Amino acid sequence: MILEMKVPSPGESITEVEIATWLVEDGDYVEKDQAIAEVDSDKATLELPAEASGVITLKAEEGDAVEVGAIVCLIDTSAEKPEGDEVAKEEKKADAPKAEPAKEAKPESSTYATGTASPAAKKILAEKGMDTSTISGTGKDGRITKADAVNAVPSMGTPTGGSRGTSRSKMSMLRRKVAERLVEAKNTTAMLTTFNEVDMSQIFALRTEYKETFKAKHGVSLGFMSFFTLAIVRALKMYPAVNSMIDGKEMISYDFYDISIAVSGPKGLMVPVMRNVENLSFRGVESEVKRLAIRARDGQITVDEMTGGTFTISNGGVFGSMLSTPIINPPQSGILGMHNIVERPVAVDGKVEIRPIMYVALSYDHRIIDGKESVGFLVAVKEALENPVELLMNNDVKKALEL
After folding, report:
1. pTM, 2 dp
2. Which of 70, 167, 222, 399 lies in disulfide reach of 211, CB 3.0 to 4.6 Å?
3. What is the domain extent for residue 342?
């Protein structure tokens, strides 16, 4: 029996996918549920499992864009699994005709005159700053003539002898979709960015004192993301316009807080969503961040896990970024950029002290968020991060950390 395998729908509104990689070869025997291909949609990379066991015949090439529901391969379920399959493959390789060694090209004959410049040619080349070794002579026996020197064009820049090759590769569907969305955000929103700095001393002190106990009890590290996420939720409650979106001529505001987190996956940028963060504790946020990061790294993120989100956090600091202007993740209206933490001299009560400082940036859609709200939102985030015990932990650290 020949089974026709069709492209399943990765999610709502997705009409086509791209064959990123075939994990099997044409004619291979595959087992049921074995991953046979990786396919890219405009939102995620997914594995395509075999629907039955048998010999596979591929019907699409890597890089092909195929519609959802199209046939991508055939599986002959009546074929029996070959015995000693690995041995057969090795024998097949051994029996393959060997390519004949390339015949060595005979060197062209040359004489003592080859590459020698005439006095006039030598003077012209010197004026151009060119070496005779870079010129092919057209005179007798390869001599460099005055005409050769006149027609010689000096290279722009100093010759280095290094490689100057280029390569061209097709962008994945996911990468192309990310590019389209970034351009869309720049072209369809009135995007502005406001900046501030955060003294991370209090958070450093809390993490130093409680991170070992926290990890021992909950199995996850007490990182910066939980502090930032909870500080953002607090600020969103104070400035609900930042937790809103434009839909045509209407503004949609939400009474829940689904926070998207930008993570780097093997296929590029992915933005999974933490749902109802207002109900999560420090442990809950750290556990969810870890879960989503692992799924993104392993290519297991689903479309549903990246759909929605009312606000986004982007942490460029893990790559060493000092300052940036993050781009809004449409149709959202705001994104907070975190950056690296650097010890800087700051004025504290009239004295200069060295403190761990992070620059933070809020990019927002000025169509629905005014300057007062954007600045107020970022100041509220700063206040919560610089006074986490009172504003994020209700003056009870151990209860907040569930210790």
Report:
1. 0.65
2. 222
3. 192-400
Return the closest-CA partner of residue 306 out of 70, 69, 1, 14. 14
Ramachandran sector of residue 204 (left: φ over 0; alpha: ψ -120 to 50; beta: rest): alpha
Tell me if 165 is assigned to some domain. Answer: no
What the block records as the tokens of 390 is 């009172």
CA 313, 318, 322, 326 torsion: positive or negative?
A: negative
Number of domains in the chain: 2
Residues 6+ apart with CB under 8 A from 368: 241, 244, 246, 251, 333
Residue 212, C-beta contacts closer than 8 angstroms, at least 6 positions apart: none
Please state, in angstroms and rounded to a whole number, the distance separating the CA atoms of residues 374 and 195.
10
Look at residue 174 and tell me if it is in a domain: no
Span 38-82, pLDDT tens digits: 887 766 677 888 888 999 998 888 878 888 888 889 998 888 888
Domain annotation covers residue 62: yes
Model confidence pLDDT, tens digit, residues 125-142: 887 777 777 777 887 677
Residue 51 to residue 1: CA distance in whole angstroms: 13
